[in-house]
Amino acid sequence: MKNFEISVLDLAPVKQNKTINDTFKDSLELAKTVEKLNYKRFWLAEHHNMASIASSATSVLIGYIANGTEKIRVGSGGIMLPNHSSLVIAEQFGTLESLFPGRIDLGVGRAPGTDGITAKALGRNPMNINQHFPHQIQELQRYFSVENARSAVRAIPGEGCDIPIYILGSSTDSAWLAAKMGLPYAFAGHFAPDMMATAFEIYRSNYEPSEKFPKPYIIACVNGIAAETDEEAKKLSNTLYQAFINIIRDDRKPFSPPVDDIEAVWNPMEKAHVLKMLRYSFIGGPTTIKRKLQEFQEYFNVDEFMITAHIYDQAEKLKSYEIFRNAVDELNLVSENQNIV
User: Fold this and answer.
1) Luciferase-like domain spans which residues (predicted)?
2) What is the value of pTM for the model shown?
């Protein structure tokens, strides 16, 4: 088992009886906390038309988080590229990188991050997304290059900026693309676990080294809810389960506090579907979290875990990320000692 990094995926969750302003303040507090805990990066995800998620203006929110922190990398997990002009994204992230040098990541995906009607309102053309998405990534690379100074269309800010591009995926399609382009790959195991193992195998087996990334680099995004005991963590996880029940029911209301009995909330079919979607969720006390992380890493051998935590209470959420940090440090120390022997 090799050592691995740990990072955060934040959706800027909106909670019942809280304002959007409260959401943003909580996200910044989380970023500051995990920065002190030496998390590697803090990513925000683009979603639209969801009363439970406030990260629709992803680039703006990245600037807010980066401005309130000092060293942690901040980026998108991701920008849904077909929703945008490649030039506009290059300019936005070029601006961010110019403001916060050496700290900005650009993760890109091809999904809409919303429902079909809203995707149409965003101006997406579903007929050419699969063909156009790789082309857009190449456009970004060109706009960021120094050589593009000779072009008639330039990204300023953006030109000459060293902004790493990560390809996001929830199926095998993006694994093939990331491998072919020689780019890091982040998989959305927190809601689409079925194809993760296959996607990682495709990516590793077909990886074509690039100048910036001579070796494949894998990020696994998973749900993480930790507390002092397994029982406490299980109770906190009811907020996560309710959020996915709401997705199934197409009910986009803000996140709910944990209930005493989740069995009274979902029916058997909903329960089976939710648990299937949340297969890669690490829920428990410190010992359980450490064991589950170790089992996952021994099987998948990823370079980085990205933890997203649907926990209603802010203090409990901050504590959860501290427990995960401690578990990762202990596992990495064991791995280092084994390598020395």
Assistant:
1) 19-298
2) 0.95
